[in-house]
């Protein structure tokens, strides 16, 4: 069950549909009336004295139309000392217009300074006659609600330990012997979107404008067992230090900067884009559904890992300020970071411990409280940074342009906007994955980070960070905290509420009931101990939820079986292996399932295994479409690219010769067809060999990066003029010998076989053709060098957008080849043969140049061409990837297998990528990589027929239903 979004009510205060009037029948005397609040699906928080000695309890809810719904209640927990009680709704039906599935849990807080507060209850002074009394007899009476606004302070009622709440008093005391506030007891007291107490008393000596409330902070004087029970019933945090602090610590006020308008607009737009991006990612990953996991952190006990507190707290010389209180939970990370004067924090955690979720939560919370002039937090995945070759600012600039392309626009101060934002301190770097930097570079990276005084938040696994600190020194001015493991109490409610009720065992039982009972009651049992150790990380809890809560027919009790899972490692492998079959369950469930492409689980898993092995070979976590074919053997790639270039040039040349020979010679169709086939075959072989070898030469370095074309005819810089000259000479040097080989084939092979069409121009034509081709090729490459404005590979916000941009670029290349070579060739030929033949020859030469030269160039030298040749043709043909690759990646992202950062994808966690790569290598041991980053390998050929069977082609494409996105080439 997925709760609806009730964030508005959580942030603003009490939801009127969850306010309760508590009506009791006593063993002796008149019954009592009080107030309460529905804190979760079936629990109502109230005051203990309201329900003490009650024979029965009725809970009355208000509906949106002003009517009431009354249900029986049952007392399940009470404590007279703190004067709080928890009632259970006996019939968990829709109340107040809300059903149990729509009830978001409340948050609890403690106050550190005076705060505004509010409460909704049913006091006696709101007693009203019911105008709708039947038969005009004695009127019936009812109590209407009262929304009390006031202020409270932590320093009032110190001895009693209650909150003193100052509110607007009633106009008069209707009955001197009784308090007009009777019936308000049990109302939840709210501040800052959190419950801070429960109204319990009105001392007449305080006057009519003072109430007393049992404050949440004092509830932790209960026994650990009682606190644990409240945690289970109402979601009270297990420890007092996990309560939200109100008001939050105020960050230093940053004055609005006197920025240029373009910079201010870029900062505002960046803040919106970052917030939108990570809100969507948080929703896809369901990190807060049905409620947030209680991820906790604490200051690291290893003193050698962080700097002196004097440096962290920016204390004056000669002072010893002492440590900062850095313990807390996930929803306090922005608050804790804001309390660090140096604004430099390192978060350590093992794999799957919640580092990525923490960074996501930090960014969203920081943005929600961001003041004008504050930095904008941006998450950077550190795995692609090489500190030995690229400065931190240059690398971050490239990352910014990748994910937010508007930051690549020119700035009035020179350079691009991303550079200006970095130089002027408008970016707060959230550096995720220090441990993912290439081995041997951690020390260099830490030295670079220490030399900069930029505020930052850095995450890492403890081992890699500790080794880097030992080799260099601690990160300057940075505090260090560690993520703690989850306990049974932290995830019990999460797994319980994420599961469907069990068929047997009562309405509140789920498939997780027996497992959670074992973990609590028999923690020493080997099976329970294994499960408890595995579920200490949010990653494994999320996998367990996906496998056993989101998919029908799976019983988590099998996790306790030590004959199947003898160790925690075996359990982890099981959850990782079962994750993909669960998310690719062909049974359509959930919202939007009808529009989601249906994928065969085994095929989807094999494709993802190939992708994981591909990333493992490249030594990266970034899955980019332009690198998908780069882990094939270079010789295989050369053959594929050469074959396609030969096919493109051979077909266009052969077909282009047909109309020329039919119009310009009297030898008839048979001669034209035979000559066209021969010329197409031989010329295609030559051109295919040239482009295949050219690809092999350029592919020894990094893969071709996507770029976009910026048309800028005037104002060429010295660098652009130099690029024109270099490319012109390259084209001339490649075009002349290629054309000479084609002339030799025509004169030495085709003519002796009797297929001379008499249109070669003799010796003049033999000398002229290589010169035309060479000059034309050089001119095309030079013009493209003049017009092209390559940008960083991270220039688009999605893979399909970047793919479309580069497809247009190759089309522009082909048009340039057609115009630059075809038109001059036709003009020169027409001078001697006439305008009709010249037009025809120009058209033929132009088409051949476009599809032979332009497309061959695109296949060999551009990212899109290599994508088409390798990832859209060869890899799907051999069964390693689906035909609709981008659609498959988008779908995997929607299912939570991948996450997206700009134009690249990543597996949702490095553990999942490692697991899939290991499975792939186990299936293909001959192709296991022993050298990370080596890009010269190839999985075994998988015959297409073995993947197809009797399945329709649409199923193989993964497109049984629903639209595909970004798949056209």
Written overview of the protein:
The strands form six sheets. The chain has a seven-stranded mixed β-sheet with strand order 18-17-23-19-22-21-20, with helices on both faces. Strands 1-2-3-6-5-4 form a six-stranded antiparallel β-barrel. α18 (634-664) packs across α24 (863-877), α19 (668-698) packs across α20 and α23 (835-861) crosses α24 (863-877). The protein is 43% helix and 14% strand. A hairpin with a 4-residue loop joins β5 and β6. It folds into five domains: 7-242, Beta Barrel (Thrombin, subunit H); 263-483, Rossmann fold, CATH 3.40.50; 488-583, no CATH class; 593-628 and 881-956, no CATH class; 634-869, no CATH class. With 969 residues, the protein is of the alpha+beta class. Residues 1-11, 588-595, 708-717, 790-797, 929-937 and 939-969 have low confidence and may be disordered. The longest helix has 35 residues, at 799-833. The two termini are 40 Å apart. Residues 242-261 are annotated as: Disordered. The chain crosses the membrane at residues 638-656, 676-698, 728-745, 765-789, 810-832, 838-864. This is NACHT domain-containing protein. It comes from Streptomyces klenkii. Keywords: Membrane, Transmembrane, Transmembrane helix.
Summarize the structure.
It holds the Pfam family Trypsin_2. With 969 residues, the protein is of the alpha+beta class. The protein has five domains: 7-242, Thrombin, subunit H (Beta Barrel), CATH 2.40.10.120; 263-483, Rossmann fold (3-Layer(aba) Sandwich), CATH 3.40.50; 488-583, no CATH class; 593-628 and 881-956, no CATH class; 634-869, no CATH class.
